[in-house]
Amino acid sequence: MQDYLEILNMILKYDEKTNHLKNYIAPVIADWPGQLFIRRAITHLHKNNSKAQIPLGVISFVPILGPLHVSLNSREQVIQIFYSFFKKLFHSVFGLRKKFAKKPRPWRINLLLELVYSAWIKIRSLITEKFGPLCKFTEYQTLIDLIDNIISAKRKNYNKAPLAFLSDIFYWEQNNPPIKEVIKLFLVNFNDYWIENIHSRIRSSTTCKDNADNIQKQAYLLDANKHSAFKEAFMNTKHYPYSPSELEFLTNKTCLFLLQQFQLVFEEYQKILKINTTSSTTKPKPKSKKDKKEKNLNLKFITMEDIDERVLPTGYHTSYPPIFNSCDNCHKLFEQDSDGTILICGHGYHWNCYNQLEFKCKHCIKYFNEGIWSNVKSFVKRLEAEDKDKLTKEDLEDEDENDDENDDDDTNNLTENSENIKISEKEKIELDLQNAINNIKTW
């Protein structure tokens, strides 16, 4: 926290001459450490008997969650959690000889997510029609949760920082300060792109052996030369390597991969259906705290290896995981496809049961309520602590930079050998895709 106070004091000393902050606030677009330590300073400013020496001017700073930072980390987290799935996809599309890094670079992450989304749009209706509206098979629900939603998974810190931001929003809604309308009208302007960009440039031009003075001098140099005509004349510029036709080709290959995976899942689903045909009206026993903490899953997915518990939809993290092909309220089997609905969390209900629950998932509401309160209490405790002035191991895990040294992203050869795709190869993929779509009926 002390490092952040020193920086804020520099701004406050400058403000003594300009008075920019008089009757105004200064939004601070910050990542997790910034969110934590600036809020912690404000907390200790108002805390009775606090030992911390906090300048009064700190109250002018309002930490706001940076959308770019959250977006980049969320996308990276999706790849890490579903790593085995995306590794299979990558080798299927680009070839087995290509190496898929443990932490791919952002451009590759964006490419894979875009390919999956574009491919899913093409085949979504065919897949959901084949499985039916009431399929509660765990692997199918997990794939749908990934592809249809591409949700950001539970990051240790970003399950707390958004709650703090929402708390600010709710406070502003009740008290109507000017920043309320500013946030509504200009939220997109509260962007940490420039910060992340200069940080990236500094990291690429410094080493871990550089001291603070050298890093600062390099930062000044980079900023001074950002419009250098000499540099622009001799620098090696990079361009996005894929043309629209090449992206279409890669999307079709991704479609083929997804169809193959869903066929395997469907065949496994049919086997399970033959075994689980009886109805149980017995209320399932809720998971104990010990069961919730158990990390080893008794699940084997055909499409993924080394399953992380976070791959499962929300319902599987509650005290009452979804019951296979049965209503999660009355626990009776679904008789026909129009008999109920499956929610995004994985739970499913008969329509009359869902109506009785006021169209809410009772299991997940309880789970989210408990989770929110748990994270809020943890965050407040951290803010009020007197002796925690450093980042913890969990904080550092979330702030690690991309370990992409093993990512064979030769920036001069980003095209994954796709720049010379033969027309015959494109036609072959298109024909294979059409045949695969036609064969869905025979699964």
TrEMBL record:
Biased composition (Low complexity): 412-421
Feature: compositional bias, Acidic residues: 395-411
Positions of the UniProt region annotated as Disordered: 392-421
Protein name, as recorded: RING-type domain-containing protein
Source organism: Gigaspora margarita
